[in-house]
Amino acid sequence: MNKITDLFKIKYPIIQGGMIWNSGYKLASAVSNAGGLGLIGAGSMYPEILREHIQKCKKATSKPFGVNVPMLYPNIEEIIKIIIDEGVKIVFTSAGNPKTWTSFLKENDITVVHVVSSSTFALKAQSAGVDAIVAEGFEAGGHNGREETTTFTLIPMVREKITVPLIAAGGIATGRGMLAAMILGADGVQVGSRFAASTESSAHDNFKHTIVNVHEGDTQLTLKELAPVRLIKNKFYQDIQDLYQQNPTKEELITLLGRARAKRGMFQGDLIEGELEIGQIAGIINEIQPAAKIIEDMITDFEIAKKEITTFGF
């Protein structure tokens, strides 16, 4: 038993990313039932929708699951109250100061994990009293750190600074990637893009099929002036690049982004004008599979790779 399986009382140290428009109760419960830790992504849910997903998840699995909460969420107080009222015992926080809610959540017997993109923020999260930290490299899909530190570089840097359990995220979709992250100092991994292309993902089929057709170089980190985000290069992405040629103001970028672009792309399936968030690792995702099969394949791959290491002698 390692630190992550012990902390969450799960079989495998694999956590599913709480991705907006992808991570409803069907995906979270499927991952938890398969031995990982499923997360409901609160960032794309109105409070009462979140309550509904938590209640359905409790019926769909008897295993531990959690909720991912971006702390910039406008209804954060209501979201936290629902999480406590519904008896959720694991919360992953992101996009904000961990000091704001960590102690309150822990007073309510909730295990708290915070997502960071640098060792500086990892130390702040540890000081805030979190139970574990997710260090996410800039290979990851969706919103990202401005530092552009890769997972391979970030994990050992964070490991050197903190003592709490460490979860690696960004560019991990295979058992070999999981083993590499753990060799570098992680205790477990968080997987986003691979589960976005799962059968149980709440994303639109158009988006899922686009993920499996992504090749190396088809994603890019952009919109750093607002909040850095990794997108598939579609028409909307190209519109952003065209606007950059005109040295736009921040307000002009906000106007182009508009509202609900992520929903339009990932949930409603608009592949032209929608925001399509996915990680660089999508280049090796070739099929849509059930979450249980994804976890099974990762563990098999992990065990094979672990045995191969012993043949690397010099």
UniProtKB/TrEMBL annotation:
Keyword Flavoprotein: yes
Keywords, ordered alphabetically: Flavoprotein, FMN, Oxidoreductase
Presence of the UniProt keyword Cell cycle in the record: no
GO MF terms held by the record: nitronate monooxygenase activity
Family matches, as InterPro entries: Aldolase_TIM (IPR013785), NMO (IPR004136)
Pfam families noted in UniProt: NMO
CDD domains documented for this protein: NPD_like (cd04730)
Gene3D superfamilies: Aldolase class I (3.20.20.70)
PANTHER family in the cross-refs: 2-NITROPROPANE DIOXYGENASE (PTHR32332), 2-NITROPROPANE DIOXYGENASE-LIKE PROTEIN (PTHR32332:SF20)
Protein's name according to its UniProt entry: Enoyl-[acyl-carrier protein] reductase II
Origin species: Flavobacterium segetis
